[in-house]
Structures are given as C-alpha cells and as structure tokens.
Specification:
The chain is an all-alpha fold. The protein is built from 20 helices and no strands. The radius of gyration is 23 Å and the shape is globular. The chain starts with a helix and ends in a 10-residue tail after the last helix.
C-alpha cells in the first residue's frame, strides 16, 4: 500500500466510527479457533494418559505437565509484542496464525509416536509453544477488528468454536473405539491406536480451520486502527498507564527480588529442595541478574513517552508487565484462581475417574482404558455445554452486567467440580460438566471482553500476552504443589484435586465482583 493510499485511508477513517462486522465476517475471523481447540483439547484429554502409558506415576504427572504453561509464559508476550509491530502482505496477526498452525500440526503428528516418557514431555513443550504462537494473536484479532460494542459477541463466538472443536476432539478416541473398532488398548509402553489416529485427524483439522480464517478475513492497518480509536481518547488511556510508572531503580529492584524469590521457591517445590538450597538459588539469581536489573532500571528511569518504543522488545514488555492498568491487576487475581482450577481438572480428571469411579489405575487394564475413554467423552460434553453457553453469555451480560455474569458462571463451574466426589456412577458425571462448561465458556470470553475495553489499541497484543502470565503462573503453581498436597493431605487420591479446583473456581467468582471497570462496561 502506498503512502498516499494509507494517508487517504486514514483521513477517510477519521470521519467515521469503526464499522461493525456482520455475522459471517465474525464467523470467519473466529473459525480458526475451532482448529486450535482441536489441538488443545486432544492435548488436555490425552497427554496424562500418554504419560501414564509411558510409565509416569500419578504424582509425577503435574511436573511433566509443567512444559505446557511454561511455554505460554515465554511465548505469548513475545508473540503479542511482535504481532503489535508487524504489518506485511499477510497482515498483522495472520502471519502468526500460519506459523503456529504449521508447527502445531507437525507436533500433533509426532506426539503419539513418542517412544519414552521424556520425549513425550519434550513434545508437549513443542506442541504447546506452537499452539500459543497461533492462539495469542487471535485474542488481539478480535480487539483489532471489532468495535467495543461487538467484542463480547466476538469473544463469545470464539468460545463457541472452542466448544465445538473440543467436543469432537475430546470424543475422538471414544468414537474411534466404539464406532470404528479401533483398539483403545496396547502393549505396555505403547500408545493405543485410538489416540494416535485422533491426533492425526486433529492435526489436519487444525491446519484447515486456521487456513480458512487466514484466507477469508481481512485486517485493518495500524494507521486505520489508530484512526478508528482517535475519538476514544486513546492518548488518555496511555496517560493513565503512564501515571502508574515510577521510574526509580528501587522499584525495579524490588520487583526483581520478588520475582526471583518466587522462582527460588518454585524451583525448590519442583525438585524437593530444602530452604537452605532455595536460598542458595535465590543468591545466585540476585548476583547473576542484579546488575542486569539495575541497568534496566536505569535505562527505563530516564526514558519517557514515545522514546520507550525505541528500546526494543525486552525493555517494553518488562516495563508494561510492572505497570499494568488497575483493572488488569484485579482481573489477574480472577484468572489466577480460575486457571488453577482448570489445570487441576485437566491433569487429574483421568486419574480421578479411572481410580475413583472405575476402580483401576493399571494402564493396561480394560477398566482403566474404558475410564480414560469416558473422560474424553466428559471433556467433549463440557465443551459442548460451553458452546451452548457461549451463545447465551452476551444476553446474560446485557441483562445483569458482565461482572455478575462471570461470577454466576464461575460459581456453577466450581460446584460442578466439587460434585465429582458425590456422584458415584460414572455415567452420571456429565451432569457436573454442565457447570464446568458454562464456566469454561465464560473464562474464554468475559475476561478478554473486559480487558479489551481498558487497553490502548496499539498495545493490545503485548498486554494480552502479559495477561497470559496470570493463566500460566497458577498452572505452574498447580503443577508444583498439587502432587505434594495430594500425597501429604489426601493419601494420593486424585479426586481431591478436583475438589480443590472447585473451591478455587468459586473464589475466582467472588473476586470478579471487586474488579473496577468503567461504568459503561460493568
């Protein structure tokens, strides 16, 4: 596009509001999430099964899962920053959709052929990083392409496709076994054919669905987006963020010390280290990274306004992390408890249902594999309920407000997880999945609709990536402590991980009520 064309486009755009998109335009831009969720759902429903098949003990599963959230912690803010600053022939966000889709498809083809436990853990790392490359820009894509009045609808449409994709993907091993006579058992140390074929099919669907969004959607240029939001006093939004920025070395050193302390404790929990060794790790962190942190603090303390953009990705991402808008801090608490609960459900439902409801933890037994297949159906059911709930969430938000909507939905999800303990018949476990599905649809849409209304458009990608920290950190914590808690307090019974998750989800619902949103959103 020539300079004259961009200038003319920008001038014309300043004379009108950002146009609303019709149903099919929103449909096309969100359709790729169906494919992404195919990969995500296959991972969630089957990776614990793969780990156990390759020899993992139940209390080792959380640590093996640690690769998934850790890659999100690293990848999402980087991709967010890069996509904010990308504009080429394919667009702003779509280049990352394409790269992520190719890498995830290849990972899905390779994962079920893992010969050993640690290769499977490494493939989970690669697969989750690839999913994150494709997934993160989709959140900002809605914020870019839709006016504020349509964003709840846009994120709800994403939730709908997430639900539909996950229904089919989660149920695939069960369907292949019960309708196509594909074996769901295999010799010790080998992954069942039903799981392998499900991963092949999922990889193909993911690539085709994301490809459809790439070819059927358009993107606005950075100049157009700036013009669309000129009337929204975007500069004032950024000024409010700048007001929270204190450019002192002391503040940055304090933040660094807090993060390194958390890292030392986390490392100790993972590897079972004593407090003396944790303090040693902390000391290394302070002496190794202290000078770098002081340098960053000095540079950031002396740079203001647009000059910050010239410092590069690392400085800007770190700076934005420590100076998020107030409502984003409050939503971070909601996300922490919500995603701790979800991670507990994903990594422990298979072991909980097979041991508590089917009475077997023997991975080569028919009872265990029947139970694992049924977990796939349960995951399919909660995603199906999520797809239905996604249709209703915009109407409920309009009726009772977006915050109270999220509180109701999270509470229903928490009660659903707790009820696993009280329902003895595994065939009836679809009932609590109604509440879990409603909560899942809400978690995937409502926080992002809240957040997109308080962020400056030119930083939508990086802040969405930073927001992912508060999805990842609770997952890292859950991976670190859930095994210890279960062994120490509950004699290793995984059903209590689901109860813990239910309690945390209810706490998240209460925390939503304390989020300070503009009156137009609340």
């Amino acid at each position: 596009m020539s300079t004259d064309t961009i200038s003319q486009t920008s001038t014309n755009t300043q004379q009108r509001q950002q146009p609303e998109l019709n149903f099919w335009q929103i449909f096309n831009m969100c359709f790729g999430f169906l494919g992404i969720q195919f990969g995500f759902a296959l991972q969630n429903a089957n990776v614990s099964r793969i780990f156990q098949t390759l020899g993992a003990e139940i209390d080792e599963i959380p640590i093996l899962w640690i690769a998934a959230p850790l890659t999100g912690l690293i990848v999402q803010p980087i991709i967010g920053y890069l996509s904010d600053n990308t504009w080429n022939g394919l667009g702003r966000r779509r280049p990352y959709f394409l790269i992520g889709a190719i890498c995830t498809t290849l990972a899905l083809f390779v994962m079920p052929h893992s010969p050993t436990l640690w290769i499977a853990a490494g493939m989970l790392w690669i697969m989750d990083a690839s999913i994150n490359i494709a997934m993160e820009p989709f959140r900002a894509f809605v914020g870019d392409n839709l006016p504020k009045s349509q964003r709840t609808k846009g994120y709800a449409m994403q939730s709908f496709f997430i639900g539909i994709g996950a229904v089919v993907a989660s149920a695939l091993p069960y369907i292949l076994t019960n309708y196509f006579d594909v074996a769901n058992t295999a010799p010790a140390g080998e992954i069942a054919d039903s799981v392998r074929y499900a991963f092949y099919f999922g990889g193909a669907v993911l690539f085709l669905a994301v490809g459809w969004t790439i070819v059927s959607s358009k993107e606005y240029s950075p100049e157009e987006i700036s013009a669309f939001h000129a009337h929204e006093q975007t500069a004032k939004q950024e000024d409010r963020i700048d007001e929270t920025r204190s450019r002192t070395a002391t503040q940055y050193k304090t933040a660094a010390l807090v993060w390194m302390t958390i890292g030392a404790i986390f490392t100790g929990l993972v590897y079972g280290l004593g407090w003396d060794k944790q303090l040693f790790i902390l000391s290394i962190g302070i002496f190794a990274f202290g000078p770098l942190q002081l340098y960053c603090a000095k540079v950031l303390a002396g740079v203001k306004g647009k000059k910050r953009d010239s410092l590069g990705m690392v400085f800007n991402v770190v700076d934005d992390l420590f100076h998020m808008p107030k409502a984003m801090h409050q939503l971070a608490i909601v996300q922490f408890f919500s995603w701790f609960a979800l991670f507990a459900m994903w990594i422990y439902t298979t072991s909980a249902v097979t041991s508590y409801h089917y009475g077997s933890s023997d991975v080569v037994s028919q009872a265990y594999n029947d139970g694992a297949d049924w977990v796939g159906m349960l995951f399919a059911s909660y995603n199906g309920f999520a797809a239905l709930a996604a249709v209703m969430i915009p109407f409920l938000a309009k009726a009772v407000g977006i915050k109270f909507t999220h509180t109701i939905n999270l509470t229903l999800g928490g009660l659903g997880l707790i009820s696993f303990y009280f329902i003895k018949d595994p065939q009836m476990l679809w009932i609590p999945m109604i509440g879990v599905g409603i909560a899942w649809a809400s978690i995937l849409s409502v926080p992002y609709a809240m957040l997109s209304g308080i962020l400056p458009p030119k930083k939508m990608g990086v802040f969405m990536g930073i927001f992912n920290f508060f999805i990842v950190i609770p997952q890292l914590l859950a991976a670190s402590v859930l095994g210890v808690i279960l062994n120490g307090l509950f004699d290793g019974e995984p059903i209590f991980a689901l109860i813990t998750g239910g309690v945390f989800m209810i706490i998240a619902g209460i925390a939503v009520l304390f989020v300070d949103l503009p009156s137009s959103q609340a």
